[in-house]
Amino acid sequence: MNSKKITVGRDQLGSLAPKFAELNDDVLFGQIWQREQELSARDRSLVTIVSIIAGGNFDHLEVQLQLGKNNGLSKQEIVEIITHQAFYVGWSRAWTAFKIVKQFYGETDTIKNTILEKSTIFPLGDPVTPQRFDGKAWLKTISAPTENPLKKRVSNVTFAPGARNIWHSHKTGQILLVTGGEGWYQEWEKPAQKLKEGDTVNIPADVKHWHGAAKDSWFVHLAINSDESEWFEPVSENEYKKLL
Fold this sequence. Notes:
Layout: H1 8-13, H2 18-32, H3 41-55, H4 61-70, H5 75-89, H6 91-115, E1 126-127, E2 133-134, E3 137-143, E4 153-159, E5 164-165, E6 168-170, E7 174-187, E8 193-196, E9 200-203, E10 209-213, E11 219-225, E12 229-231, H7 237-241
Antiparallel strand pairs: 1-3, 2-5, 3-4, 4-11, 6-12, 7-8, 7-9, 7-10, 7-11
Helix pairs in contact: 3-4, 3-5, 4-6, 5-6
């Protein structure tokens, strides 16, 4: 944990809830998680995963599975933890946890080993928050606004088949650079555009839009934008299913 600064709070909530993002990144992960002399990062991950399952907070389990994997917890150890825990927190919660674990390890291995091995130029990153995405997606900040002269965030975003973000806009616009797979881009009240490797999308300021993977393909792009964004409603499932 000491070598990697956590920025997920600022990445996802920096413009909406800056104080919450600061507490998440600087206090929870910057101070509490860094107290490795008192309790190792691996053991903190173990305690956190157990607590999340016990509380039934399954929306947060996948993020903590990724963190636990980074901190040295193996799949076999996670399975044993849940098996042991089932007798204390209930069989139903254990079943739910196992479903998430099975999906997490299966999809992660697929991304790293086969489907987009040549297209995933940058690290996969962390799972995104479900509030702003439908389906499985991962985000890695390549350059933060405080690290470059353009004051823009450069992010690598990977979408599983069928995954997409919700309708949103960026105060200063956005640039998408497609590096792998096939996906879609759509502006409000306009037809959707099919995207493939090598395509570029220049999105004007304050234009409501969404982007994501095709139903049968992974999709990877770089996104360049400021942190000043506004998020709206999800993309209609019926409208998405009509895309060919």
